[in-house]
Specification:
Largest sheet of chain A: 4 strands, mixed
Number of strands of chain B: 4
Oligomer: heterodimer
Number of strands of chain A: 5
Number of helices of chain A: 2
Distance between the termini of chain B: 73 Å
Helix content of chain B: 40-55%
Largest interface: A-B, 39 and 53 residues
Order of helices and strands of chain B: HEEHHEE
Strand order of the largest sheet of chain B: 1-3-4-2
CATH superfamily of chain B: Hypothetical protein apc22750. Chain B
Number of domains of chain B: 1
Strand order of the largest sheet of chain A: 1-4-5-2
Largest sheet of chain B: 4 strands, mixed
Chain lengths: ~110, ~160
């Protein structure tokens, strides 16, 4: 499966548009990480725990989006976008969406 | 009088700790950013949506990079003071810049791993992360950078 955030896959031609596909996940932080973050807020610096959490969560949203595209019989997702929103304090929704398409090699 | 000191002292201590350690952490991060950015010299990084000469592209990948950076106590304190009178919060400028540069670097690392030296349609997304603990007034920002990395066919560079 080819994923790009451009409108076409470079070097390929879109033969069929299958439609919008999406994937989301809502994640809460756990207490241990929050305590570590409290300490980091005193001295500054990267919150590695949060970075990992978000990376992993975004990957899951992407995987769910890819699963939808596979069901539609697509071989690529173009124009992939992401949004992040805070659902409550301490929880965030990560959402990925894009257009599932069938592409063939060659530039028309 | 003594009770007042007991209230002021911990805050002063945290301010000194935040200022001292915070500056050191920031300085080290900036040095590390500069060193790693040198490693990506010559990369094409752009927010253009069109990929030039698409016929020479062999593979395209979505590449991502994330970074969550926290402020120190001194900066949060300075920012809260600033918000009383309004105006630019300079203390947070470096925070945002550091998060953005770090996220971009991680995205470029992914591109390099895929064998690419060109990333198109680069986008940034920023969100702030607040603690679930209401007693923690600290601010953290997350910057997420993403784009499309392309690998060209051999002997057909971008120029």
């Amino acid at each position: 499966m080819i994923l790009v955030n451009t409108e076409t896959v470079p070097g390929y031609t879109i033969r069929e548009v299958k439609g919008l596909v999406q994937g989301n996940t809502i994640r809460a932080k756990h207490v241990g990480r929050d305590i570590a973050a409290g300490f980091k807020n005193l001295v500054g610096g990267e919150l590695k725990g949060y970075t990992e959490l978000l990376t992993e969560a975004r990957r899951q949203a992407i995987e769910r989006m890819m699963a939808q595209a596979q069901e539609l019989g697509a071989n690529a997702i173009v124009n992939v976008r992401f949004t992040t929103s805070a659902v409550t304090q301490g929880a965030a929704e990560l959402y990925a969406y894009g257009t599932a398409v069938i592409v063939v090699p060659g530039v028309s | 009088m003594e009770a007042l000191w007991l209230q002021v002292l911990p805050v002063l201590g945290l301010l000194v700790l935040g200022y001292g350690v915070g500056r050191w952490v920031e300085h080290r991060h900036l040095l590390s950013l500069e060193a790693r950015e040198l490693g990506h010299r010559g990369f094409v990084v752009t927010n253009l949506r069109m990929v030039p000469s698409p016929e020479t592209v062999r593979e395209s990948y979505l590449v991502l990079g994330e970074a969550v950076i926290a402020t120190d106590y001194f900066k949060s304190f300075a920012a809260r003071l600033r918000s009383l009178v309004g105006g630019e919060i300079r203390a947070y400028n470096t925070l945002m810049t550091r998060a953005r540069r770090e996220a971009l670097l991680r995205m470029l690392d992914q591109a390099r791993q895929a064998g690419s030296r060109e990333v198109y349609n680069v986008r940034y997304e920023t969100s702030n992360i607040r603690s679930a603990n209401p007693r923690n007034p600290g601010v953290s920002v997350e910057v997420f950078a993403f784009g499309t990395a392309v690998v060209r066919q051999p002997a057909a560079g971008p120029s």
